[in-house]
Amino acid sequence: MQLAPTATTDLAISTLKMAMSDKDDFAKAAGCETPWDMAGRIQTVRVDNGPAYTAGAFSTAAIDAGIAVDYTVAGAPYLRGSIERVFSTIHTKLISGFDGRTFSNVVEKGDYDAGARASLTIEELAQALVRWVVDVYHNTPHEGLGGQTPRNCWLSLRKRVGVPLAPNEDALRACFGITVERRLRSEGIQLYSNKYQSTELQSIRREYRTGQLRVRFDPDDIGHISVDTPKGWLKVPCTTKEMHGTSLEAHVASRQRLLAQYGEEAAQSEALVKKALADLRRLSDESRKNRSIASPVFTADNLAKLDAHFSDDRLRVDEDFEGDILGLDEPNETAQTKHDPDSPITHIQDAPPFLGDDDDDDYILED
């Protein structure tokens, strides 16, 4: 479940990844008392014919994850009865309780001034949605489930039938990660001023004399990367242990603040680096505590913007830095159609999954 102003392919892929992952961090951040631990490998996903789902990147990500995509017949909403009922329930049981709705059509809306009556921020709406879904909907008896609550039904079926194991972090990175090209050097691979190195990676460099390689990373955790080598995809750790479990957003924000305050030369001093790493860890931990279904989703466009801030993997100081170096807070309504196919940043569309390891209203609700 994701909340955003516009439905995009990046958002759809992120939702697919979220559906297979443990979502308890989102529940805790919203103050839920019930766990949101539904996770597992999806076999089939049914979607409509919107451009976010018909895009090649979405179908490729699904195929890489072993998911069959079933497209509904256009113009036949009765074939989507279950999800339409869910949306209706969310509207009547939750959204209708707040001022500022735009209603489902102009006739129903009448002269109601939704903007003047708006009562929630996007983050507040996201928190309310998660709290209602996890603590209310999951614990309310459901006629379609024979009177069971959705959560009890899940727990019962999981115990009786079992659930295909959710993909591990390496498989998720392989299927849903973002890909860039980087040069393999003697010191390893550099990505946004981090170095990634392993014995196996250097062995490949010496044996194959490789230059540019495709690198896939998860912006939610840049502690490891996957490298497309002549021998297949290889998982490579970051040489800075503090990066493990750290998001790209937290890392860049911390690095940018350090450079803006002290400059590049001072930023290399051991004491300042250690302080920055400690701050980064706290920032990363805080970001996990505040995870939201309305959090921005990384796109090829804002990652390309990030690349522009690096030269030879050294981040340039942005004197106008205000905490949004990636442009995540900027509206990106054209991201769906303006992606450059020649850009080195994209979702992989021609590689198999990585399996190895060396070590209601104005907003679109994706569910």
Automatic annotation (TrEMBL):
Residues 325-367 are annotated as: Disordered. It comes from the Bacteria. Residues 1-158 form the Integrase catalytic domain. Residues 356-367 have a biased composition (Acidic residues). GO terms for molecular function: nucleic acid binding. GO terms for biological process: DNA integration. Pfam families: Mu-transpos_C. This is Integrase core domain protein. It comes from Roseibium album.
